[in-house]
Amino acid sequence: MTILFTDIQDSTALNEELGDKKWLKILAAHDVMVQRCAARYGGMVIKSQGDGFMIAFAEAEEAVRAGIKIQRTLASNPRRLRKAPIAVRIGAHTGPALEKGGDLFGRNVALAARVTDLANGGEIVVTAAVSEAIGEDSGLVFVEHSEVELKGLPNTYELLSAEWERS
Q1: How far is CA 110 from CA 5, 53, 126, in A?
Q2: I need a labelling partner for 72 at 20 to 30 A (CA). Which of 6, 84, 135, 162 fits?
């Protein structure tokens, strides 16, 4: 399975700037958009975490395509989000996870969350496991991002950026 996280960059500052009522309208439009993009590619929303989501996909390619759809939708400046352009950070990792009570747990979930923490707004960062699971014939473009140590996890991890403007 591939676990994809989304997170609105600088959401607290944006909330402060807009005020609670406007922020909730922007957040509601964001939530609908992310859920639609995920569903289009077979993603199952596991949970919403304030201004972000944890979404599970059976296939790595579908996860990346959903991430691309999210970024492209935001870049097209949808009417309901025009008053407050938002930047969404997306991260993904492929590997087994444990399910309990409709939630996912385990090392691979933590790894996907840590990868998301390293993404900038407008970026899709994935582990090498994601790009390897997809293969080379998908038409998706990945470029080297970095090799990093992730907090609380052993070893280093190769991260790549999915180039959503070129895929």
Answers
A1: 10, 14, 13
A2: 135
Is a pLDDT exceeding 80 seen at residue 94? yes
Question: Phi first, then psi: what are they for 149, rounded to 5°?
Answer: -95, 140
Per-residue pLDDT at 167 exceeds 70: no
| Helices and strands of the chain, counted as H and E runs | 5, 9
pLDDT class for 85, splitting at 50, 70, 90?
confident
Q: What is the DSSP string of 111-143?
A: HHHHHHHHPPTT-EEEEHHHHHHH-SSS---EE
Report pLDDT for 49.
Answer: 86
The CATH number corresponding to 2-162 among 3.40.50.300, 3.40.50.1100, 1.10.630.10, 3.30.70.1230 equals: 3.30.70.1230
